[in-house]
Amino acid sequence: MDFMPFLVVPLWTSILHLDFVKGSFVVDVTQSSYQAEENHNITLEWTFTTKPDTSISSLKVFCILNNGHKYWTFYHLFDGVEFSEDQDKKFSGRVQSDKDGLREGRIRLQLSRLRTEDSGLYLCEVDTGYGHGYNSCRLTVSGEVLVIGSNLPIISAPGDDVILPCHLEPMFDVQGMTVEWSKPDLKPNPSDRLSRVEYVHLYRDRQEVPDMKMASYFRRTELFMDDMKHGNISLKILNVSEEDNGRYRCFIPKLQSRVKAAVVELVVGQKICSIQTELSDLESCFVYYFNSFPNFQSHFISLL
Ligand SMILES: *[C@@H]1O[C@H](CO)[C@@H](O)[C@H](O)[C@H]1NC(C)=O
Ligand SMILES: *[C@@H]1O[C@H](CO)[C@@H](O)[C@H](O)[C@H]1NC(C)=O
Ligand SMILES: *[C@@H]1O[C@H](CO)[C@@H](O)[C@H](O)[C@H]1NC(C)=O
What we know:
It holds the Pfam family V-set. With 304 residues, the chain is mainly beta. It folds into two domains: 6-142, Immunoglobulin-like; 146-268, Immunoglobulin-like (Sandwich). Helices cover 7% and strands 38% of the residues. The chain has helices at residues 11-21, 99-103, 294-299, and strands at 27-29, 33-37, 42-48, 60-66, 71-78, 81-82, 95-97, 106-111, 120-127, 132-142, 146-148, 154-156, 162-164, 167-169, 179-182, 201-204, 207-208, 221-223, 235-237, 246-251, 261-268, 270-275, 283-288, 302-303. The chain has a six-stranded mixed β-sheet with strand order 2-10-9-4-5-6. Strands 12-21-20-15-16-17 form a six-stranded mixed β-sheet, with no helix packed on it. It has a four-stranded antiparallel β-sheet with strand order 1-3-8-7. Residues 1-22 and 297-304 have low confidence and may be disordered. The protein binds 2-acetamido-2-deoxy-beta-D-glucopyranose (3 copies). One 2-acetamido-2-deoxy-beta-D-glucopyranose binds at residues 163, 165, 167, 224, 227, 232, 234.
């Protein structure tokens, strides 16, 4: 079936029509803008003036999404019958209407499994036989916020100050949230039932919480407070030593996301110095990377 959507009627005709019936028939939105997250569901709602004892058998509803460049058919009801054939395939199987609501003058359209590209202006045009009008609302779908660390290890020499990178994407203000940095490979002491894994750095209520901080990191760690509103939760560790080697985990327990944590590996080389008395009394030192990264052994030998 090939339908000519009645929205193709030039807009000025609709406006004239609206003017003509002004006061007697109104299409309205219950909310002019909606915000939602990717993968969630949302119900967009329009209302229109009803007359008592009217059936929906002559009701026509045509809704589109307009993102400023293009439009897609979102929902089409013709003489009370849904035409899913008309619906754009990007919406197929994702739009559910509330048939009972139609009788009461409510168009409730649930859009499920939201995608960021569902963002835009949703416009519904309604023709009841006794009135005609349209209205629109805006939907903004934001992508799921993910915690991102680093695939590459952070290579350093003893005594260096290092930054373990970790941030949220898209940008997300974490100033009011709890941020935990820990070493996931450290297990609680099995002989001490009360012992708990301690933190490298714990941030809560907008400040560092030194309780339960590993003694070896005392006064050596800091977050970039000013950048946390942009989702930067990188950790600075001062004066690293070989004992700091290993995997670090940044974690935001309350983040509404499937990815609340990321891991960053820190590799601190071993510094070996010798004094070559036969040439001079100069001490020469090398940093070797033995542990965990055989590939780096040859690549990252550096003369200090
Ligand atoms: C979204 O809607 C779908 C289909 O209607 C349903 O299966 C799913 O549970 C809903 N999800 C949420 C988060 O409400
Ligand atoms: C986070 O802040 C640190 C320190 O200013 C900077 O080096 C790093 O590049 C920032 N990370 C991001 C993702 O902006
Ligand atoms: C850096 O740490 C080493 C031990 O790993 C310590 O001997 C030295 O004093 C520290 N340096 C500074 C500037 O704190």
